[in-house]
Design brief:
Helix content is 17%, strand content 7%. It is of the alpha/beta class.
Length: 609
Amino acid sequence: MSFVVAAPEVLTSAARDLESIGSALNEAHAAAAGSTTGVLAAGADEVSGAIATLFSGHGQAFQALSTQAASFHQQFVQTLTGGAGAYALAEAANASPLQTLEQDVLGVINAPTEALLGRPLIGNGVPGAPGQTGGAGGLLYGNGGAGGNGLPGQIGGNGGPAGLIGSGGTGGMGGAGAAGGTGGTGGWLYGNGGVGGQGGAALAGINGGLPGHGGTGGNAVLFGTGGAGGQGGTGLTGANGVNPTVNSTAATGAPGSDVVVGNANATGVNGGAGADGGLGAAGGTGGLGGGADVTGTGNARAGSGGPGGAGGNGGAGGAGGTAATSSGEADGGAAGNGTVALAPGGAGGAGGFGGVAESGHGAAFGHSGGSAGDGGAGAPGGTGGVGGAGGDGGRGGLLVGSGGAGGAGGTGGVGGSGAAGGPGGTGGFGGFAMSSGGGSATAGDGAAGGAGGIGGAGGTGGAGGSGGHGGAAGLIGAGGDGGIAGTGGVGGLGGVGGPGGQGGPGGFSQAAPGNSGFGGYGGNGGHGGTGGTGGNGGGSGIGGVGGPGGLLFGGPGTNGAAGPGGSGGSGGSGGGFGIHGDGGAGSTQDGGNGNDGSPGAQGPSGQHG
């Protein structure tokens, strides 16, 4: 019975299978009992009765034997299950003492060297605290501990060195914007260098927004391969486009002077232009056109409203002046036009109101509304940052060992998204016309709404980082391959086009019975702005140079390949259409409604890097 090996889980599984087989047999025996233990005679004669008695006796004997077999089967299953449990208990009881024995033995062996040199004789080094070097491996045998990952802005800890035999620890990952830790040195006699830690991703406000480079791979000493360099950190994401806030409005233009006469023609003075506001303020509203008032007989022509001033948001046009005459033709003043927004995402200026015309005995003509300004294009997204460089591979063993591969370059940052285009201005209202005597009245038409601004272009993705150089081999060995260049960053999304402005409503008219009164037509809605162009994908970085081969034997490493360029960003959605202006009411004929504007087109996607 020496060297008995038992697998408790296998015994338990076998016991369950046997129990299932026994249950199936018991069910089959029970199903057959009724028809085999009480066989009916085929006829009333003595021979048939004897045959039935014979077969019934055999069936009853079989059932008795089956009952004994089932009892034995159940006892066997219980015995097998108990044996599996006993083996499991014995195994669990032996495991803890053996583990304790192993720990006790290693504790006795390592105690002198830990007391004298601060490191064990046999065993792996402990991982480092954040940003700290990993513990050293055992003097005779053991791997170095991994370096601790860095906190934001903190370099990752270096991997711990190995002892006589063992591999160096892996370098810790750099915190945001910081380099990865260097891999630990391999064993003095034999062992590979540790892998360099990955560089930290870029973060605004830390290290100038630059990513960390990958850590250098650890060196081998006599025999062993150098550690691979760590990958560079990801570049900074480009800032999203932000349209400036327009907080104030420039001064309104000076109003035109009113002119009042008796029996003569009168012409009002035009209103002045609104003041310019610069990028930070809306343009001023144009001045009101001067009125023209004829108290007797004569034609009245009102002054024009001034144009809106230039500004971050376009200035609104001034309203045309009112013309009034007791007997003669009355012409309302022309409305001032709204101006185009100068600031990114600014709103177009609204058109001014058409001038009102009133005549006692004569024709009256209201003026059309002023044209609306277009919205400003959205601010573009920022360019993504360059990816971090990959770490260089470690040197191979001095006697025999290949150099470590260079680390891959980091991925370029994603381009920022473009901002939305500004809304188009509202079209000016048509001027009213009223004639109370023998003349027609024709109201002014509403003006079209301004077009929405184009969405801001997405930012270009950042270029991928350069690959690390391959490590050099020793006397015999191949040079490490250069690291692959990082992938270019994805281009940013184009901004949404601005909505079109609403068309101005037509003016209403009122004429005396028997005279024509025509309402003004409503203005068309402005077209939605085209979506912004998606940002171009970032270009690839440069692959690392392969390390030199061994001095006696071994070829150089292969240069790293260029990484793929980043994908271009998607274009922005087009802006919504402007709603039409309603036609004005007329005493004879109403004006027709304007047409809705068309929605803006989808912006084109950016080019792949």
